[in-house]
Amino acid sequence: MSDATLDDRGRLTLPKELRERYGDRYHIVDLHDGIKLVPVADDPLEALRDEFEDVGTTAAELRERARETALDEAGR
């Protein structure tokens, strides 16, 4: 963990090693007890593809499964 201080214009400078590791863009999330910086990928769609590349079920299959479950629960 490292400390950072806002400058007189309200800017926060992250340490070089964090910028190199996580990049230059972040979402700021307001939590009940502080804030959280969430890195934003340069290409968010590519990041999603990478995250879910090992998932074997397609979106169409998931929709059909959800539809079938809903019909079963409704008493088809």
From TrEMBL:
Ranges of residues in domain SpoVT-AbrB: 4-45
InterPro entries in UniProt: SpoVT-AbrB_dom, SpoVT-AbrB_sf
Secretion signal span: none
Keywords tagged on the record: DNA-binding
A molecular-function term among this protein's GO annotations: DNA binding
Superkingdom of this protein's organism: Archaea
Protein name in the entry: AbrB/MazE/SpoVT family DNA-binding domain-containing protein
Source lineage: Archaea, Methanobacteriati, Methanobacteriota, Stenosarchaea group, Halobacteria
